[in-house]
Amino acid sequence: MDLRDRTDLPYRFFKPKNSNRWNIRFSISGFPQIKYALGTDDDDEALRIADDKYRDAVFQAKHGILAANGSFKSVAKDYVKTLYVEAERDPSKLTKAKYADAVVSRYLIGFFKTIAVTAITYGKMQDYTDWRRHYWTTGDGANQKHLTPYWRNGREVLPLAKHEEANDATLKRENVILRGVFKHAVRKGLIKASDVPQQELPKVNSDKRPAFSKEQYSKLVLTSEQRLVESVGQPDVLFARGMLHNFILIATDTGMRPKEMFNLNWGHIEGFEEAQSKRTVDSRITIHAYGKGKKPAPLVPMKTVITHLEQIQKIYRMRFQTLPTPETPLFCNIDGGRITTFNKSLNKLLEACDLRTDAFGRKFSSYSFRHTYATWAMQDPLMDVYKLAINMRTSVAMIERYYSKVIPEDHAAVLRGDHKWPQENPA
Predict the structure, then answer these.
(1) N-terminal to C-terminal alpha carbon distance within the chain
(2) For the chain, what is the radius of gyration of the CA atoms?
(3) Which of 12, 75, 131, 338 is 20–30 Å from 232 (CA)?
(4) Other Cβ atoms closer than 10 A to 196
(5) Does any domain span residue 294?
(6) Residue pair 370/256 in contact by the 8 Å Cβ criterion
(7) How many of the other CB atoms lie within 10 Å of CB of 144?
(8) What is the pTM of this model?
């Protein structure tokens, strides 16, 4: 007898569309319908697993530990709530909570809806990956012109939707949120960790962010300087371009992440006042960067950073007729508020230089300066990768992953066999 015809059991068997594996559904008084994916197409094994699942659910209901609603939608919303609660205790986690909220609301709930988390199969996860990849091109978002509006500086912003396929990096980043929902379901006793379905994702190319060559960087800086000259007589434009110009210089001389730079206050620059009274060659400063970690981490910048900091201070003093305080953001806008992105102005500068992409078609971004710093450092035969990793606030493994292909010419000469070794002195 087909299991789907069994009426003598307290649960009903069924197979989802495009699947040969058994699932069951049943109801317990006081609870919504419950579904479980059994993970097998064998009838005998399905009967055994189904009986265990049903008995477990009855036991949990009897003892008040069966969740009132095990739908994906309810679990996902509850997961987001926990992230906002964590953000109340630690404000640095608010960005993560908002990002998760957006992904859950638009994509995860949009696809999985009210299906029980226990009924989500491996096949369903792969269907989601395909649905998400084409969401903005041929899927649900193809005809949407705008994203969810938000308020900034007292004005409502209505961002335009980009009708592009989700790339591998985006899918991988959003998968962290999806895994978080299932982990939350495990903590609530809705599903066993061993039963959580996996989402197969393509491997993300490790060198997706390009670095500037010496020639490209020189062209970028020269063009930026020319634009500064053209802005004389336009105080607002000159101020904005001056901030961008020095952001580029400092980013390349420190290897800092964009977020770390935007989080900087003048008080995070240790030894700057003393350095101003010394020759550049004798100057020493330390920058306390705050980005991915909870606490600021010290880094040693190149000495040329002192000159760039003096330029920012000069720009600030000309604008506000006073020196910045320790609490003043290092990079601020014309109103004195903290800058959180240079994307728009940087893209205009890159377009002016005809440097939107590298030779492989990879787009330059504000993160490219960090990669430029590391690439140039690794090209120095005297550079110690361990010290570089510490100064960049990352691991040796990440340095090797991204920059292992960067070989100094001195090293390449040895590999080619054309390196001339000094002859030993005759005895």
Answers:
(1) 95
(2) 28
(3) 338
(4) 16
(5) yes
(6) yes
(7) 13
(8) 0.53
* Residue among 175, 152, 150, 343 nearest 244 (CA): 343
The predicted pLDDT at position 426 comes to 41
Residues 145 and 54 grouped into a single domain: no
pLDDT digits (tens, 9 = 90+) for 139-150: 888 888 888 777
Go through the chain and tell me how many residues it has: 427
d(Cα 306, Cα 389) in Å, to the nearest integer?
Answer: 22
Q: Residue 320 belongs to a domain with what CATH number?
A: 1.10.443.10
Please give the residue that has the higher pLDDT: either 355 or 71: 355
* 363 within some domain: yes
pLDDT for 260-284, tens place per residue? 999 999 999 999 988 888 776 677 8
Q: Residue 292: pLDDT band by 50, 70, 90 thresholds? A: low
Taking the C-alpha atoms of residue 406 and residue 379, their distance in angstroms, rounded to an integer, is 6
pLDDT of residue 420: 44
User: What DSSP element (H or E) covers 152?
Assistant: strand 150-152
Whether residues 230 and 328 share a domain: the answer is yes
Residue 42: CA count within 13 A, CB half-sphere: 4
- Residues 349 and 212: their CA atoms lie apart, in Å, by 14
- Runs of H (alpha helix) within 63-154: 72-89, 94-103, 109-112, 122-133
CA-to-CA distance for 187 and 190, rounded, in angstroms? 8
Q: Which residue, among 44, 49, 47, has the nearest Cα to 195 in the 3D structure?
A: 49
C-alpha 70/C-alpha 358 separation (Å) is 48
Six-digit token string for 280: 């550049």
**Is the domain of 187 the same as that of 321?**
no
Distances (CA, A) of 148 to 107, 163, 164, 267, 400: 13, 15, 17, 36, 39
Q: Which residue has the tokens 């989402």?
A: 199
pLDDT at 280: 63
Task: Output b/e per residue, 272-303; b: 16+ Cβ within 10 A.
Answer: beebeeeeeeebebebbbbbeeeebbebebeb
